[in-house]
Every structure is written in structure tokens, then in C-alpha cells.
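Hey,

The postdoc asked me to send both predictions to you directly instead of through the lab channel. I've kept everything plain text so nothing gets mangled by the mail client. Protein one:
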Amino acid sequence: MSTDEPKFGIHRPVTVALAGNPNSGKTTIFNALTGARQHVGNYPGVTVEKKEGHRSHKGLDIRFVDLPGTYSLTAYSVEEIIARNFLLHQQPDLVVHVIDASNLERNLYLSVQLMELGVPLLLAFNMSDVARQRGLIFDIPLLSQLLGAPIIPTVGSKSQGIDRLLDKVVEIVQTRAMPVYRYHYGTEVEQQIGRIVQQIDAHPDLARCYRPRWLAIKLLEQDREIRQEVQIESVLETAHNGIRHLETIYGDEAAIVLADQRYGFISGACQEAVKSTVESRHDVSDRIDAILTHRALGLPIFLGLMYAVFQLVFHLGEYPMNWLESSFHWLGGLVASTWPPDSNSILKSLLVDGIIGGVGGVLVFLPNIFLLFLAIAFLEDSGYMARAAFIMDRLMHKMGLHGKSFIPMLIGFGCSVPAIMATRILENRRSRLTTIMIIPLMSCGARFPIYALIIPAFFPEHMRGLILWGVYLIGIVLAVICARLLRKTLLKGQTVPFVMELPPYRMPTARGLWLHTRMRSWHYVKKAGTIILGISIVLWGLTSFPRPSAEQLEGLDGEQIQSALLRHSIAGRVGKTIEPAIRPLGFDWKIGTALIGAMAAKEVFVSQLGIVYSLGEVDEGSAVLRERLRADYTPLQGFCVMLFCLISAPCMATVAITRREAGAWKWALFQWAALTILAYGLTLIVFQIGSIISKI
């Protein structure tokens, strides 16, 4: 075969566009690639110079087009419009982005936009010699993996790397490789992009003309050219609503928010794969990051902030919580007073003990939940949570997890269901499954009412924040250990690195904080008004029936009657049945009965205890429940209850979503069984050792 014949069966000239910032050395690379075989003219209708050249390499005829130098594809200038229109409408076989490697972060902004456009992409790190002289060391394989595009170092002025660049051009054109688009704009922006994409997909003609995701991003950026071409009212209206929402949340223009997110992605990539850099942006965010993401100080600062959040939740939440307690107790008393004093009405018991006692026992913790979500929203909107992810990334890698795993794990502190759904951002299935398995160990908001009931019952005020912080920390440590074990056994495989997005710090807007906190708190209220209401009624039935005969109750006082009714009920009998198995944990049949209800939803544990103790008609509410708990159990037993509820099998909703996201019941059942066994084993060890120590 002649060396001039195509080696890959491509018999047509292929088009390769060269893009890059002004002064990136793009023209030098173009000259090195094409030599004397160049043609210079102007683009139609403008005075901008158009350069084309040809080169044959390994039998492949390549047409190189030198696009005008541009910093972005936002289409504000003539050069940007020409470059973007060429990429959109001429559809080159490959884009070679020539980057000034000594000024990496600024140049990579265009790379991100090229990735968004969905063109086959090759990055030429030009001026690599200058970068080395400035002390920059690139981990090329890692950076290529993070950016999702191959990288070839070049020195255009010395024609270094040109042959390797040509080899890679031929390889990509033959394989038709596309960039692996890995950038995620964050929950708020992605939600708006998703809504616009849905509208675009509903119009096939529009979806065929543009990549839907790219088009949605351009509409959010209010790109003039694109808005003129999209004349579909539903699409434009959805984009307009998305822009307004983002501006409300972030207090800034949507286009600026998107730009900041891109720079955050780039900054994170450089922190991962560029060493000894002197090119970083030395702005306020960088100066703050020097402290908050410090290798030694970052983790203690993060843990300290979480401790401060828990102290805030307990101290500020106590006052509105007491007010709600009094309100529900007044309501229960009012309903109870409508019945004759000697009445033993089933309807009265259902309303007072089942509905008001059950749902009210959960809703009283709404102030604490609201404050917890408010604090998390502040840390998220300010940009700190992205730094927390960066800090935890080192730990994630040691666990064998993808760095992005921290994001769904963080969401897990609110609710396991959306957290498990958020694992979709992980491309690697092993990392995703591992993350799904350990998310229930992140102490969700549903467990908070259990802590808020037990901690004040057994521990002095000055220790409450510390105990709560410790419980959350135990869950994190267990998650680390379990993830490590899973990646060493059932889910072996290599961890795929990723870019930590580091957006600039912002002062959260009041409107944005309110929207985030309200949405999450309302989800909790809806659970109390629907799922927990239903479960409370079912549990009331289980604790009320079957009823003993009148002869069996004869001669008993009020409390003895309530106790006899419960012992005789289905729930009491089940609790009694499992009592021998849970006694080594420090639990009795009352706690066992409440744990049965918590299998459906963790919050139900509190309302179930209220029903177990028959406190629906008392005036003091949960204060009385705490007194009863103090009378029946020790602080060690109280801590063991929290430990067991932290680790044990997730709620039914979590089991269902695990089955859906993991794709098989075996993973959901494995998660349920493994966490239950782990909870039993650790609680057994803690209670037995604690009991021995207490006797010394």
C-alpha cells in the first residue's frame, strides 16, 4: 500500500478548525501545521481575515481553518460570532483548541464553551516551555481525564509536538471521538437547564438544529443571536422564568452566574492537576481559600462550622419548639374535653393519641429542621459547601470514591431519597453503587426529631450540641469505613477523578435562602401531613387493637389500663416478641415497638413512643415524654437508641429509591440487611462496654 493512501478508509478531506485566545500562539501552530500551503481571504461581509491551509498526514488530507482569536463563544464581538457560526454550521470534523499553557485558567474558559458546544475537541497546550520556566507542572493524563479531552503539549515557535498533534488529529478523526462532557452547573442551574431542554425536545425541528443542552445554556445567558433564532414562545418563556429564578437565588445576572460556575470548574481542575502554579487568580476568594481549604486547617474549620450549626439549631430552635408543643397539647386537651370524663371512646383516642399526638409529635421539631436547612442553605449559597467538597475530596479518594460522591452524601443530611437520586452525576457505576449504599449513614432530617427528643432528655444543656455533632460524625466515619470495605470487596475498581468546582464566594440573598429553606421544610411538613399521618393512624390501630375484655381491666387505674391496653395490642405483642433479641442492646419492648414504626419512616419513632406511653391527653406533651424516658432508661440507653436509629435499615422510601437507582432488588435488600446487622452489632458493643464501665 502506498504511503499516500488513506490508512483508515477516509477518502475525503477532513476539516479541522483551530480555535484559541488572541496571543495564544494559534497562528504559529497553524503555520507549523500547514507551511506554505495556505490561502488567506476574508469572511463574507466582514473584514475579518480568513485563513485556510492543507496538510497530508498518514495518508489523510486535512483542511485546517484558523478561526479568529476569541476569548469566548458568547457572540458579543464579530470574531466570536464568526467562530461560533463556523463551528455550528460548518461542523468541522475536529476542533484543536490552542491554549497558552502559561496562562491556563483564562484560556480554558473557551475550552469549557467548546465542550458545551459538543464538538470533537483536542487541546494543544502551547508555549509549554514558557509554562515550565514559570514553574508550572502539569499532570497531563489527569488533566485530560478531568476535562474530558486529549491534551498534546506543544511549542509552536520551535515546531515541537506538531507531529504528535497530527497523529492525534488522525486518531480522533478516525474514531470520531467526542469530548466527555463532565461539567455540572449545580442543582439550581441544572434544574433550569433541564426544564428548557424538555421544551426544546418537544420541538424536534429545533432539537435537530442545535444541541439542546447548549441551546438551553445560551438562552439562560440571554444570547442575542440565539434568542432571535428561537421563536418558540414556550421555550422562551421557560428560559425567561429560569433567568428570573437564578437571579433571585444568586442575586446576580444568570450569565454571570454561569460564567462564575465555569471558572469554578476550571479553578478546581487546575488545583487538582497543576502544581506550583503562580497563575491562580489572586482575588478575595483565593485569599479566603488559602485558609478555608488549607491542607491542615480545612477539615477542622469544616467540623467546627458544623458544630456551630448544631449549637445554633438547638439554642434558637428551643423557643418556637416549646410554643408548638404547648399549642398541640392545648389542641389535644380541647379535643379530649369534648368527651365525657369517663368516656373510653375509640374516636377520641384516634384523634387525641393517633392524629394530634402522632403528627404533632413530629411537627414540633419543625423549627429545628427549618434552622438546620437554613444554615445548610447559607453555606451552599455562599460557596462554602463547594469548598467543603474540595476538602473532603482528599478523603473521598482515600475511600476509593469519586470526588463527586460528597455532593449526594451532603444532600443525604437532608433526605436520603433525593441524595440517592443525586448519585446520577457519577459516571462510574461502582462509585455510584458504593455511594448509594452508604448514603443512609448520613444522618437525614427524619432522624433529627429522635435526637431532639432524646438528647435533652438525658444530657445537660452544655453538652447537647456536642452530642448531636458526635452522632453526625459517627455516621460520617462509618460511611468512610463501609465505602472503603465495599471498594475493596464487592465493588472493586479504579476511581475516576473529577473536577472540584470552586465558585467565587457570594453573600447569599434573603430570597434565595428563603426559597431553599422553605422548599426543604415544606417537604418535611408534607411528610408529616401525609405519610406520617397515615402511619400514625396505622400505628394507633396496632397499639389499640385487639382490646382486652372488661374483666381483664377491672380494678386497674388509668395508667395501668393504658399499659394493659398496649400490652394486649398487636404492637405490644410484637414488641414483647422481639424484646429478648434487643435486650442486649439496652432496649425493652417499648423501644422495640417504636423501632417497628420507624421502619416505615424514621420520624415516626417519636410519635410511636408518644402512643406507647399513652400521652395523648396530658398537658405537658413531649416534656412529659422526656420525663418518662428519663425514669425508664439511662443516658447510655438513650445514646444507644440514637446510635441504632442512625445506622439501622433505612425507611421504606429509601429502600424503594435504592432499588430503582441501583437497578435491582438485590442491592436494596443488601443495603437494608447490612445496615441492620451493622446497627445491631455496634449498638451491642457500645451498650455492653458502657455497662461494664458504669459498674467500675
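Protein two:
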Amino acid sequence: MPGGLDKNEKKNYFGKVMIDKKWSIKPVPGPAKVEDLAKSINVNDHIARLLIQRGITTYEEARMFFRPNATDLHDPFLMKDMDKAVQRILAAMDAHEKILVFGDYDVDGTSSVAMVYSFFKNEIGYVSCAYYIPDRYKEGYGISKTGIDFAIDNEFSLIICLDCGIKSVELIQYAKEQSVDFVVCDHHLPGSVLPPAVAILNAKQKDCHYPYKELCGCGVGFKLMQALSQKIGLPAQDVYGYLDMVCIATCSDIVPLTGENRILVAEGLKMLNAHPRPGLKKMLELAKVNKKFTVEDVVFIIGPRINAAGRIKHGSGAVELLMASGNDPLISEYAEILQSSNTERQGLDKSITAEALQMIEENEVLKNKKSNVLFNATWHKGVVGIVASRVLERYYKPTIILTESNGMATGSARSIKGFDVHQAIEECAELLENYGGHTFAAGLSMKIENLSEFQQKFEDTVIAMLNGIVPVPEIEIDEELSLEKINPKFYKIIQQLAPFGPGNMDPVFMCKHVIALEGTRIVGDNHLKLVIAPKDHPEMAFKAIAFKQGHHLDELMKGNSFSIAYNLRENEWMGNVSLELDIKDIKMD
């Protein structure tokens, strides 16, 4: 096809490239298995099928799924080096050493720091501690020499680092030589050489037999707090009082909501909805948000505002907001800084994404590559990760967005399903100064003079790893469900499966042979607002929204029938609540 487009691509309503999605219907469990589970836990066949598709087949598995409880969390001392971490921290406290709590500037890092620092100050009552968040622009990601020098200059002899550190071999060695010990709490993939820390808490270590491997950085910090509490005899409730922070970090870091994470998020959501922290409450007032929070709300409302502090100004603003008490005179100032930073972040995100997409759309060579590696020295470092996600959504290729920072090409990578972008970057390690991350997201930096060679090496690596496969975005459909079966009672039954997120996604249904009725139109930024009905029952109308799918409008309004892949959701407007279809994709019949 002309213009570098292949058969999976088409032009949307505004002339931009869109990619057709593959619909995959999950295998239907056997009737006998469905019937047995439905009877044993007293649910209908719909719920039993959805549970089996999620790997839940027994009464006990279903009990833990439907009733996630903090008492079912694993013993923290099952994690490798936990005993060493606790011993070193208690020894520091006995000797009145100064402890520095160090964390990354994103949601996971700042939530971790606010949680652990507050725990030491408020629950243990240890005052010889402080916290440190690196400056994104001056120091970059993770452990920094500036941060270690701060510890040395201020006589801190122990650093507890959160959501970073697993790759900081040389810097932690430098700290050790200056008599500063490290306890590393991280969840990123370890390298072949581990840092010389007193203790490394990371369940992804090959010789760590902790039963659950998918905790975020804040989750690892929470396990450390659990272990300390057990050792010094604090009530478990003192630790559970921080589950709202763990929930925010877990949801925002897009880790699987399975196992322990499901427990942490379910309990944390209860706290967020019943008694939000004063800083969060003030922040949400400024954002004019007043609703019961779900995982999706945490990801798209709370997370971006906390993240914006480190992206635009400094991550310490997020820490102060999370720790603020109701009578803190600066609480409004903290909230206003995050709100204004988020507004600025949204503007940068939109403009830089447009520039990145234009860069590809005007270059035939880039269009035909299997990867996107884009560099612009003027792009704002704080939004390159978001922009990488936006570009990936459009072109569905492993994507790296880079800008110049401190004389280096620095940026973020995002990946497609089934492709390990961290491994691909690791294959180019000789061209890099620093890198780290996991399967679907990573950060990296290199000398600018290495950029061209890196682009080619990364492209060659992607081609080799794909091995001839043409990646196509996929929508996994749980089952076919006609509109006639949708009602408020059915929606409430489905909500029993919440909280939804990676590993337990909101069920996606498919319905064939529907038509668009009068009132279907484009709203906002290319969103399609629909009124739809079964072709054979046009009187049975449902409202629906299809985000970023305005390119379908002309075809739909010809009166032809089509199929939809959709979620169910409640739409609240002016106090009225109604069911609405959230359409993920549309295919003409």
C-alpha cells in the first residue's frame, strides 16, 4: 500500500494512521467444570466461567479472590535478605545512627518514601531519619552520587532505597567505601552483578523464594515495614494504615493485580474511599473529583497528579502532600502545586506527542521500521515515558523516546505484548551509560554520539526477536454477550470480580449485529458517542462511548450492522446513574 502502510493500517477520521486490532475469544471452559465451580461457591455460570478463565477453579481460590484480606499476606521473612535488612535497621536505631529514606521521583518511589518515612517517624517514633528524592533533571533516575554525597555530608550511615538500586552497583560500592550502608528495596529486574548492599529485597532475584514476584517498589517497602513491626511487636494495624499508599503505587505502576497485589489494592481502595488522606482529599477537591474510587480512577486521576510533581518540578512535593496532616498550613499549597504541575504536564504531553507522530508520519524510513527510536533535544524529560506510550498506541511497535539531559540522550521505552523491551535494550548495553526496567517499560541513557548506532542496533535486535512475526494489537474477549442480557443486576454481579487491573481485567464482551441510531456523533478529541441497538430490535437502545474511534462515524451512519468488543460501566451525570457500554473496538459485519 502507498505511504508505507500495511494491511493492518488505515486512515482515521482526521487522516491519522490507525491499526486494526485482532479479536481473540478466550477458550470456553467445559460445562462440567463450570457447573462444579458455580455450585461450590453459589454463583451463576457467567461468573464461574469468568473465574475459570482467570485460573480460579477451587472453593479456596475463589474465597481468597472474593474476600481479599490482609491476614492472607505472606510472611515477610520469606523474602531473601529480610532478616539481614531488619537486623541492620534495628542496629542503626539502637546506635542512634541517622537513616536516610531514598526513593525515585515517580508515583511508586514517592509513595514508598512517604510511607516508610512516616512509618519510622509516626509508628516507631524514630526521629533520626530524613528522606531524599533525586531531581529528575539534575540527577536522573535511581541512586545518584549527589544523593550519596548528601548522606555523607550530613552523616547518614544507612540508606534505605525504594523502587531503585538493583542496578546501582558502582554507586553503592562508592557509598560502602564511605561507610554508608544500603538496604535495597526494589522490584526491577536484577543484572548479572548485584550491588554490595547489606541487604537486597527483591523477589525477582533468582535465589529468592518469596511466593509472590510481582510487588511494586512500594509493596516491597511495605513488606519491610511488616517485618520490622513483627520484630519490635507493633500491632499489624499500624502497618495496614499505609495500604492506601501501597494501593496508589501498585495501581499506578501497572503491575499484575493478582495474589498479594490484589489484597493490597482491595484493602487500600477501602481506605481511599472511606478516609482519604488530607493531602489527597485537598488535591481531589481542586481537581473537582468527588466519587468512589476504582483502580482506573487511581491510575488516571490520582497517579498522574502525584507523578506530575517529579515530572515538572520536584518529587518531594508529592511526598509532602501524601504525608500532610489535616492541620498542615501548607496543605493547600502542596495540592495546588500538584494540580498546576499536572495541567502543565498534560499540555507538554499533547504537544510533544504531536511532534513525535509527525516525525514518523513525514518519514518513510521511520514508517517502515519495526521499532521507533525518536530523539529531540528540546523535548521535556518529564513526559517522554508518556509520549512513548502514546506513540506505541498509534504504531504498535517497541518505542523509545529520547531527549537531551545533562549532555546525554536520555529517555524511556515502552513495549508491545509479548516483546521484552528490557532484553532488547540489554542487547545494546555496550552503547549505553545506564539502563533498567522490566519487560514492558524501561529507562536508558547514552552518549549522544552513540544515538545513530543505537537506533540501528536496537532495530536489528527487534527484527531478530520478532523473528518474522508482524505484531498486531489484540483484544482478549471473555465471551459473547448480546445486549438483551444486559441490565443493572448483571452489572452488579460482574462487579463482584473487582478490583480490575492487569491479571484480572474488566471482562470484555462481544456483541454481533448491532446498528447505530440517531444521536451517534463525534465528541471531544475524536471520541465516538453512540446510541446502538440490536439490528433485529432497534427499540432496545443503549448509550455507548468509543474513545478515539471517530474514524468509524461515516461507515456506521450508512445503516450497516457491525460488531463491538466492549466493557460495561456506570455513567454518573447530574446525580443520575445509568449503564453504558465502553466500546474497545468496532468491526463492520
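Summary for protein two, as requested: The CA atoms of residues 349 and 465 lie 30 Å apart.

Thanks,
C.
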